[in-house]
Amino acid sequence: MGAKGSIRRGVQRGLVEIVRLAYIHRMRPLERWMSETKVLDDALAEKVGVSRVQILRIRRGQNRPSVETARKLAEITGLPLEDLILNEEAA
């Protein structure tokens, strides 16, 4: 195959990267930060002083953090406080 095979593999790798970036773009800010930094729920929960389950629910958009929890998350992650508090899916 030579050049054609090389081009095909390059295109496939490019498509995989596009899909990965699109998925990351759709992630919630905390979820994206955790994915990029490889920080685990339990490690972040310990630093913030909340349960692992609470971090998991915030990350998934199932719960909104309290203002105090959001403030701590913003300090640790560098994410804007508004991005952590505003969550359309959480009730």
Q: Low-confidence segments, ≥5 residues, pLDDT <50?
A: none
Spatial extent as radius of gyration: 18 Å
In the CATH hierarchy, what is the superfamily of the domain at 28-85?
lambda repressor-like DNA-binding domains
How many beta-strand elements?
A: 0
The chain-level structural class is mainly alpha
Count of discrete alpha- or pi-helical segments spanning 4 or more residues = 6
Task: Please state the second-level CATH architecture of the domain at 28-85.
Answer: Orthogonal Bundle
Overall pLDDT: 82
Task: Determine the N-to-C terminus distance.
Answer: 55 Å
Order of H and E elements: HHHHHH
Work out the strand percent: under 5%
CATH fold label of the domain at 28-85: 434 Repressor (Amino-terminal Domain)
Shape: elongated
Class of the domain at 28-85 in CATH?
A: Mainly Alpha
Structure description:
With 91 residues, the protein is mainly alpha-helical. Helices cover 73% and strands 0% of the residues.
Which helices and strands, and how do they pair?
Blueprint: H1 3-26, H2 29-37, H3 41-48, H4 52-60, H5 67-77, H6 81-85
Helix pairs in contact: 3-4
Summary of the model, kept short:
By secondary structure, this protein is an all-alpha fold.
Primary descriptors:
single chain; 91 residues; mainly alpha; 434 Repressor (Amino-terminal Domain)
